[in-house]
Design a protein that fits this description.
six-stranded mixed sheet, D-isomer_DH_CS1, 334 residues, Rossmann fold, 2 domains, 2-hydroxyacid dehydrogenase, seven-stranded parallel sheet, single chain, globular, 12 helices, D-isomer_DH_CS
Length: 334
Amino acid sequence: MTILAFGVQADEKPLLARAFADHDLHALDVDLGPDTTPLARGHEVITVSVNARLDAGVLRDLAAGGTRMIAQRATGFNNIDLPTARELGLTVARVSHYSPYSVAEFAWTLAMAVNRRIVRAARRTREFDFRLDGLLGRDMHGATAGVLGTGKIGEAFSRIAHGFGMRLLGWDVSPNPACTALGMKYTDLPRLLAEADVISLHVPLLPETHHIIDAAALRTMKDDAILVNSSRGGLVDTDALVDELRRGRFTGVGLDVYEAEAGLFYQDKSLEVVADDTLARLMTFNNVIVSSHQAYYTREAVGQIIGTTLRNVEDYLAGATSENTLVAPGLSRP
């Protein structure tokens, strides 16, 4: 069977080719969206990246072109119109989990980079400027880590914080016993935001979590807090964050995701004028690091994502479902 893969990174391509050796897989570096949907015509099975746009219009075009199965190489699925997929009889699957350490370790990388001013220091030393002015950080030992979402990734983040000797505060719909065993105290969101020195987001993007870090939440945080988002961009009201940064607040902010990243992240825009004023403003703050949704990007995690994607495709071909199935097979295969 010929399978079309959208949004394939250069490092990912040989891994996909090896995993799908028994299939005829064609890899494209462009993401799926309204302008690229025609490329899928005639392909029963496609696989897409996290930045694919799978709204009702795209899904209808895919179905009209013969697509019957979509395998997303990501955990989140807020970009997929599942009711429309169900209406059209499209099978949709995701990767329900992969290495939580990849994201948790990267979240701490961002936190420590802004805390210890690593980017600024590296830029200086490249120019043989070895002054310490403006590079003063703080110990994590004895500080408070606030973890929003204590699933597998939040737990891994908390274990690292525990290793630093930090006090742990958690917020979730249900406590994780493993985090409780680390000494985590679960509390309401206002208290967590008010007391935490480092706040890391590990909740899914749902209607109830959209802009969970809004203007009011940001004002609740300490002036010298560190905020890290390695989950989904829509968790943070970016315009409100820019307003607070303009007031000189926060030791640092590390963002691996951005609420308007689709069409920007995973692409080279260095020779173009980027019209996103909010993102451009974010880039001007020397206490902000924006990375390109790369927290998951380790050999281990990518290998697990590709392996699960292969199993999802083979489940579809066998008429089977699993915990990864978001929309079960509907219309009969041609």
